[in-house]
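Reopening this one. Same input as before:
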Amino acid sequence: MINTFHKNLPVRADIRSTMNTDSVVEFFENVPLLHREREYVVRRDEEVEGVYFIFQGQVLGSAGEHDSSELLLKQFDFFGRGIFGNVYSADVVALSELTCFLLMSHHCSLLESNPPISDSDKEPCLVERILSLDTLDLNLFRGFTIPNAPTFGKVFGGQFVGQALAAATNTVESTKIVHNLHSYFLLVGDITIPIIYEVNRLRDGNNFASRRVDARQKGKTIFILFASFQRYQQGFDHQESNMPHMSPPETLVTREEMVERRITDPLLPRDYRNKIATEKILTWPIDIRFCEPNYATEQTKSPPRLNYWFRARGKLSDDQALHRCVVAYASDLIFACIGLNPHRRKGMSAAALSLDHSLWFHRPLRADDWLLFVMVNPTSFESRGLTTGEMFNRKGELVVSLTQEALLKEAVNIKPIFGAKL
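Same output, byte for byte:
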């Protein structure tokens, strides 16, 4: 419930703690010790080591006379002196009467001990480490392509989407969750250098927030993401899409097992089996189980459609924002490639390069539980293919809808370089 990015702002307003015990227990979800302090009244210019959590009212933060940027703090944001972690110094002024809960500095470790991305008693799984960002400034983050992350010779498109969404999420109050995103791939990313993500706060309304994220390398914008976030609101509920009947994922072979079978299948050409055997096969951070396993070569024609179950490897925390970042990351793994299926032939070398990618999140989901990804490419023309998809949970509920347009290219040798895709 707490926005952990509004911290360490010097107090310039009369602030007092007036929350009753019941409100504090509800606000902090029964975390012990947080409601045992006496009432504090903080006077103007008085310095107190502690954290002020805004329960009612608003505060305006200003970076100072040399920086004109301002930040509006609302309910669930916090500020104070002597706070742990990433800090942003600023002057704050109360815009209205404030009701705050004051957590004294000697109890701040209660907040630091439970990072939102994973449980403190376990090592983060691979996909969490891929999506992890360094905070450079209030709206500036840095991501990396870590070892063992899927790359395909360049920065994987899903990594752009997942990391950019994580950056945007870090600037939105935690009661608002992403409900759609639209992204554009402009240049091929270099896996050997960091990616800088700059977030532009387009709008912060009562129920919705909008963000734009620019990803940069070597001074160039290589990827753009627009995302919209919404506070929970009750409304209408219906679903026309039906989940197709598929075998349970536990009965299907893994992607890695399929690769092994291709190496040993005597019905496949020997040169193809030798090629597969010499390639380094990494275990993806996403476990994929194809509903209709195909052991043919990559040069065999097939329909432009695909169904598979997937889930993150490892256990994720209960943070819904994290689960949606993981699904955004996983959504680009094979999505664009099915547009090539009807055109494959012996001796053909081809690639599918994502141009844009959009997701709509309809219902809460868990990325570490099985989701069925149903995708189809209805048309391709003039080197561009359109793919649409739906994701269902095991109950048959439609949780995500997707679209992607990709550049479908045939070439003799395909060597990704840091430059334009076109």
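So the earlier flakiness isn't reproducible anymore. For the record, The helical segments are 21-27, 109-112, 126-131, 157-169, 255-264, 270-278, 320-330.
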